[in-house]
């Protein structure tokens, strides 16, 4: 028996591996688009399969698709979402045609499996046809954008708790570091003392904003254009199907989806994705800033700042003995940079839509979903591999404070700016600490100075 089968479309014949569940449309796409050399994001594939199931069920319930065929399609979709058939989605993540190759790959796999479930032969398409049945009353142009929104919401539901957990880990460290005073720095120069717990609280607060913004993102994505078919007019789809199909999809997914009031707008415009991507970029910016701060504070540890101790994760050098690098912070920073770059790709892809359609949807989907997955993973490893195990080096922090002339800023309140400046200059000239100069000049007693530079005073808002 031949290892291939011959399938036909209007372009002609195409040899397809006999064992494959995909067909000639997919074979052409595989040959045409060897670009990213990886398939579309798994959640996008699952979402397209879910959309197909919703369409089949709706057509069955409206009497527009034979119940046996519809049920076989639904069963095939379920198999492909969570079973070995998933590997039959072989088209490239980047492709021309606004996602048509992905849509057809799914149509063919589902049709062939449904054909088998009904007793037919793979590749025959006599009982279940990729276009006539699986794609009934659909277009790539309403299936893929709808699936992208379903996939993005699914991944948002995974990202938000990861941000919350990371925020919580920093809040724990805020409490642990509350009794440590360190030097605060502006423009990488000594500025004034600050409580280490207070500094960590700023990281937690930034993540709190990220968590809320990400939580609210779902509202930007819940309106879908399923039922609009090619350009949003619902051409070739019956009206009762257009009104019912999103409701079916909502029941299957459990998501608060709604049909767009203006399906033409929802088909041609991709600005909601840009808005969500911008929020992901803001989170990436915060992740980079925090991880960068932690790298700097942990630098050395003997010839750098060394105020923060990060968990050792792996040997840091192939030649330098005993070297340990801040690899988790570095990895998180790279993930953040990639998400920022992805936002640019989303922006450019969204603006590249023309007239009734955006042909750059595959790039937009790949970049947006890639950021969602990447940021969730970054938050998780940041928390478990780094933040939860980090400690403050209280001795190094105290030594930094003692040796810095910048602590004189704490004297401005009780002694005035001119005297505080004199103390700082005297400390610089003599090599003594600010505290030693204050005590030597009798400007304050020792208890008052210690109280002024305590962790409580450093964390307090202003002075009494």
Produce a short descriptive summary:
The protein has 464 residues and is mainly alpha-helical. It is 59% helix and 7% strand. A hairpin with a 2-residue loop joins strand 3 and strand 4.
Descriptive overview:
This protein has 3 domains: 4-136, Fumarase C, Chain B, domain 1; 143-226 and 256-394, Up-down Bundle (Fumarase C, Chain A, domain 2), CATH 1.20.200.10; 404-459, Fumarase/aspartase (C-terminal domain) (Ribonucleotide Reductase Protein R1, domain 1). It contains 19 helices and 8 strands. It has helices at 24-32, 42-61, 67-82, 100-117, 130-134, 140-176, 196-216, 218-221, 239-253, 263-268, 271-297, 327-351, 361-385, 394-403, 412-415, 417-430, 434-441, 446-452, 455-459; strands at residues 4-9, 12-17, 181-186, 189-195, 223-224, 258-259, 308-309, 391-392. The strands form 4 sheets. Strands 1-2 form a two-stranded antiparallel ribbon. A two-stranded antiparallel sheet has the order 3-4. The longest helix is centred in the middle third of the chain and has 37 residues, at 140-176. The protein is elongated and about 100 Å long. The termini are far apart.
